[in-house]
Amino acid sequence: MQENGRVAQTIMNYTLLTYMKNEMNLTMLTDFYEFTMMNGFFAEGYKDKIAYFDMFFRKVPDNAGFAIMAGVEQVIDYLKELRFNDDDIQYLKEKGIFSDDFIEYLKNFEFKCDVWAIPEGTPIFPNEPIITVRGPLIQAQFIETMILLTINHQSLIATKCNRIVRAAEGRPIMEFGSRRAQGPDGAILGARAAYIGGAAGTACTISDRKFGVPALGTMAHSWVQSFDSEYEAFRAYALAYPKSCTLLIDTFNVLKSGVPNAIRVFDEVLKPMGVRPQGVRIDSGDITYLTKKTRKMLDDAGYSDVSIVVSNSLDEYIIQDILKQGACIDSFGVGERLITSKSEPVFGGVYKLAAVEKNGMLIPKIKISENVSKITNPGFKKVYRLFANDTGKAIADVITLADEVIDSSKEYEIFDPDHTWKRKTVTGFTAVELQVPIFRGGECVYNTPALSEIKKYCEQQLDTIWDEVKRFENPHEYYVDLSQKLWDIKYSLLSEHDRQNNKK
Q1: 24 pLDDT higher than 80
Q2: Which of 195, 145, 127 is nearest to 373 (CA)?
Q3: Residue 127: helix, strand or coil by DSSP?
Q4: How far from 37 is each of 27, 78, 102, 286, 471, CA to CA, in Å?
Q5: How many CB atoms lie within 10 A of CB 293?
Q6: Rounded-to-integer distance, Cα 181 and Cα 74, Å
Q7: CA 174 from centre of chain
Q8: What end-to-end distance do the CA atoms of the chain give, in Å?
Q9: What residues are paired with 401 via a beta bridge?
């Protein structure tokens, strides 16, 4: 019996390793209640009932003024491969709670939904639909978990990284967080998201191979400790990488040994080769003090062109403070506080039913709560961004019904959906529809841009956002308004609900 157990365990371990080595089938990465609801919908004859779902978020992490959309490419990859294999079917059968007809449906599952999404790299704001799904209810319901998981994670990291990038005021930010990330995907996809948010590169090698995020790195303290002396460690590295020599100078003492030994190697090894050193890195201590002293020592030795790189548990606030204090830094390596968005590690995206079709009619649906912020916007919708023609800056976003068109040639009135007396007539603007088609009838119709293009697009789009919205503390609120037609539908549903409750 024991021998059989060991064999079974060996087989299981081998299977797990094989599974991890290959692209994962993520179809079953879902909340179990998606299956119980699907089976129930199937039993009620709702297999082909058309429903509309919106993904949106209610609050920007860190009380920031905006977030950055990321993760659409991975949503596309997931939906393209959405199918149930034999192991999935066997597992569901063994649960013993699903009908044979439903199991048979899953065997022959074909994704048939329409999907719209705001492109990656676009600044996004609370309560606007960033992904909309239309299709058979049981399908549109099922994909909830993976859409939320994917968009929530990458949007969180892209948003956090951009805050850090802006704090650095033009100095490159390198993502160094793999070893502190929450699992392999947290590291790999986190590096991808950070690149969208503005990072110059990553320490995560696989993210370079898989996505083209430039892999960066030099040495650890263990390199220095492995040699008989710091000087020998630096000399060996300079000989190995003369054209990209960056030395880690804080293993023992930055000012008494690290900098002097680095300068000695620059003089004795690189200078005779006719090669200029690239930089030094400091990973501990009082960064402001040490970088000021290091800068002077390097300059006095004739190495004013040598960069100073710093790391060590940095975030946007620390970077902002040390730069205000006059720290002499050329670039930053940022790890755990970026890759985990440590200050607020949750992006609160939700996925809510917005409408169904019945007898050829679209029936708007609303989720009502005593918490006003959790009341949803009903109906099949789209999002416009209004840009001022004279400045190119974004004025506001407007959520409309899907069949509404905002005519940029005419004046348009926007209003606060909660404080409706706050109104403004907008002229001289261009209205741009934010969502683009991703899938039609289950077929992908979107050409995913290269990651470098997404990064560049993100930079361009961020230039359209006013600096006041980008403030770290008390940012100006960017308005996301409802069209009059959508507002009327929302409040008619609320009024009807109130009337029904008063009858009881």
Answers
A1: no
A2: 127
A3: coil
A4: 16, 21, 11, 56, 43
A5: 15
A6: 18
A7: 16
A8: 64
A9: 381
Among candidate residues 161, 163, 170, 474, the one with its CA nearest the CA of residue 323: 170
| Contact criterion met (CB below 8 Å) for 256 and 285 | no
Neighbours of 233 (CB within 10 A): 23
CA separation for the pair 33, 408 (Å, rounded): 44
Fold classification of 2-142+348-503 is: nicotinate phosphoribosyltransferase (3.20.140)
Query: Cβ distance 136 to 50 under 8 Å?
Result: yes
Distance of alpha carbon 353 from alpha carbon 49, whole angstroms: 13
Mean pLDDT value across residues 281-293 = 97
* Mean pLDDT computed over every residue of the chain: 94
Which residues are CB-neighbours of 460 under 8 A, at least 6 positions away?
A: none
Q: What are phi and psi of 409, to 5 degrees?
A: -80, -10
**Both structure tokens of 365:** 């649906």
Q: What is the location of CATH 3.20.140.10 in the chain?
A: 2-142+348-503
Structure confidence by residue, pLDDT tens digits, 128-167: 999 999 999 999 999 999 999 999 999 999 999 999 999 9
DSSP-derived 3-state class of residue 348: coil
Residue ranges of E strands in 337-393: 349-358, 361-364, 381-388
Residue 69 token pair: 């959309």
Contact 419, 484 (CB under 8 A): no
Across residues 324-346, what is the average pLDDT? 97
User: What pLDDT, on a 0 to 100 scale, did the predictor assign at position 30?
Assistant: 96
Supply the Cα-derived Rg of the chain in whole angstroms: 27
The Cα–Cα gap between 56 and 54 comes to: 6
Consecutive H or E run containing 482: strand 480-482
Q: Compute CA distances 27 → 71, 114, 165, 205, 442, whole Å.
A: 17, 18, 35, 27, 15
- Rounded distance, CA 424 to CA 427, Å? 10
Bridge partners of 396?
Answer: 386
Residues with Cβ within 8 Å of residue 193, at least 6 apart in sequence:
70, 71, 153, 154, 155, 156, 157, 158, 161
CB 58 within 8 A of CB 127: yes
Give, as one character, the DSSP assignment of residue 388: E
Q: pTM (2 decimals)?
A: 0.94
Q: Contact 430/408 with Cβ under 8 angstroms?
A: yes
CATH 3.20.20.70-classified regions of the chain? 218-312
CB 434 within 8 A of CB 397: yes
pLDDT value for 14 = 42
Strand partners, 247: 280
187-to-31, 190, 289 alpha-carbon distances in Å? 23, 5, 32
Right CATH for 218-312 from 3.60.20.10, 3.20.20.70, 3.40.50.720, 3.40.50.12500: 3.20.20.70
**CA 238/CA 174 separation, integer angstroms:** 22
